[in-house]
DNA sequence: CAGTGGTCTAGACCACCGG
DNA sequence: CGGTGGTCTAGACCACTGT
């Protein structure tokens, strides 16, 4: 990656920089290789560090670079295809090895989730009814992919034995096990762009505000919403696939 | 007494700003309302304009704000739920009113698309075989939502009459019409984060590099890939829904 | 500890939009 | 034309990582 003459075109410098560096990544670098640090790159291209950073940010957003404070900037591997297909009609945790239940509390869900859970109930909101908040993590090859918050109203798992001292992971697994006893009638799913909350960011090994793909799933049983899942996937490393498109490989 | 815990983890200013402004949006502003300009907001919060902009960028990424050069910053309406479900098993253009075919040329597809199209063919790549590139736009209420590039190998539409002078939109509609005659056996679909190319950005009324959700669809017929679609949705305004989750409404 | 990326500042000029 | 957001600069300091 040599020094390149930046033309005086209406095209923003950082946009041109992004193109130049992107091409260099294809031709002169290998996955995992460390790039020169930002100060040197900026000097080499004759721009301010902030401008150089704007280009790197874009490349990171597109999953081509990976930057870590205190370490450096490395060439990222191609995005991982993560199956989130709804076709199998399964409850969360049923035969899924990639997810790991890590905790469960009875914290009240955020207002937006409450609206989904209680949409078909009395309009009093029912905010007093207990709701299990199951925390799960999804990983492959030791890499954290997603953090999920699964909200399960206690009414959905009446068989759950709560008298004994089930805590944390054990309680989480208990809730998931009870959920599987219900007949699953359907799922609603939506994907949108978001930014990682502080707790999600920590578990995904990212900084707060990092771009994530938020997958909202509503599990239906008995004509009602039996559970709501809010899963945040690392947008830089994940490509969500539906159906058997696991080998799709497209750059943006 | 020894060490007193004083702000062990200083929250970045822009992160705090984002929270403060976000709360103000909920309580003191209405959809469509214009915010004070960036220089005044920065002065009001006692920060540099660049820092204030970092907070606004995050809020725009989450779909809470809309900024337009020369105009100002406005409070954005909730994201539009856009149905991209694969369940209906339809060819593109079949009974879809929201899409509008605008053009069609026989340009060669990008390498990544070629790999999908020719995956099951001879490894020579077949780059010489003609491929129709249909351009479509998706809009609701006059708002552009997505721009799509649909690649259809000529071999998939043998019945298409090309002798007459079909051009642009007419040719595009012709290709789509012929596509519907094939038996559609399945679709592979993937969603990932990308940044808008210059041409997409223009049609989506965004600046180049704006965040988009890239939906890659592979249409299967006769055991082969009959067409490949690359659709870019505005990430700031769109929430992609699968199934009948049209009324899902979750903030990130 | 030295070196990395992350945050922040206080300016400047430019591209675009509306009146 | 004036006002807006978009780009860019040349610094500074901070938080984190590895050794």
Describe this structure as you would to a colleague.
- The structure is a homodimer of 252-residue chains.
- With 252 residues, chain A is an alpha+beta fold.
- Helices cover 25% and strands 31% of the residues of chain A.
- The first copy, chain A, contains six helices and ten strands.
- The first copy, chain A, has helices at residues 13-28, 38-45, 49-61, 111-117, 168-179, 198-203; strands at residues 65-68, 72-75, 80-83, 99-105, 131-140, 143-153, 186-195, 211-221, 224-234, 238-242.
- In chain A, strands 4-5-6-9-8-7 form a six-stranded antiparallel β-sheet.
- The longest helix of chain A has 16 residues, at 13-28.
- Chain A is elongated, with a radius of gyration of 22 Å.
- Mean pLDDT of chain A is 85; it is low at 1-8 and 245-252.
- At the A-B interface, α4, β7, β8 and β10 of A face α4, β7, β8 and β10 of B.
- Chain A binds a DNA duplex (19 and 19 nucleotides) through α3.
Please compute the radius of gyration of chain A using only Cα atoms.
Answer: 22 Å
Q: Which shape of chain A, going by the Cα principal axes?
A: elongated
Biggest sheet statistics of chain A? 6 strands, antiparallel
> Average pLDDT of chain A, to the nearest integer?
85
Count of separate DSSP helical elements of chain A: 6
Largest chain interface and its two residue counts?
A-B, 48 and 48 residues
Low-confidence stretches of chain A: 1-8, 245-252
Strand order within the widest beta sheet of chain A: 4-5-6-9-8-7
The percent range for helix content of chain A is 10-25%
Euclidean distance between termini CA atoms of chain A: 22 Å
Q: What structural class do helix, strand and pairing data of chain A support?
A: alpha+beta
SSE string of chain A, helices as H and strands as E: HHHEEEEHEEHEHEEE
Question: Assembly state here?
Answer: homodimer
Give the tally of β-strands of chain A: 10
β-sheet strand percentage of chain A: 25-35%
Keywords (chains A, B): DNA-binding, Transcription, Transcription regulation
Domain HTH gntR-type (chains A, B): 11-78
Organism (chains A, B): Streptomyces tamarix
InterPro entries (chains A, B): Bact_HTH_transcr_reg, Chorismate_lyase_/UTRA_dom_sf, Tscrpt_reg_HTH_GntR, UTRA, WH-like_DNA-bd_sf, WH_DNA-bd_sf
């Amino acid at each position: 990656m040599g020094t390149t003459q930046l033309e005086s075109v209406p095209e923003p410098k950082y946009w041109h920089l992004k193109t130049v560096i992107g091409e260099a990544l294809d031709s002169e670098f290998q996955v995992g290789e460390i790039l020169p640090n930002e100060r040197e790159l900026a000097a080499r291209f004759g721009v301010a560090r902030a401008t150089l950073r704007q280009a790197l940010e874009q490349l990171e957003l597109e999953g081509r670079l990976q930057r870590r404070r205190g370490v450096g900037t490395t060439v990222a591997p191609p995005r991982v295809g993560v199956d989130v297909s709804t076709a199998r009609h399964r409850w969360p945790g049923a035969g899924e090895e990639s997810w790991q239940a890590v905790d469960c509390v009875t914290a009240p869900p955020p207002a937006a989730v409450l609206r989904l859970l209680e949409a078909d109930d009395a309009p009093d909101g029912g905010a007093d009814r207990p709701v299990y908040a199951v925390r799960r993590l999804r990983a492959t090859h030791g890499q954290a992919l997603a953090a999920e918050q699964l909200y399960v109203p206690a009414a959905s798992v009446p068989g759950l034995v709560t008298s004994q001292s089930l805590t944390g992971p054990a309680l989480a697994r208990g809730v998931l096990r009870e959920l599987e006893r219900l007949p699953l009638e359907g799922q609603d799913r939506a994907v949108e762009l978001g930014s990682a909350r502080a707790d999600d960011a920590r578990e995904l090994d990212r900084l707060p505000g990092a771009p994530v793909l938020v997958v909202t799933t509503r599990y239906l049983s008995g004509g009602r919403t039996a559970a709501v899942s809010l899963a945040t996937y690392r947008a830089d490393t994940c490509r969500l696939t539906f159906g058997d498109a696991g080998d799709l490989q497209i750059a943006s």
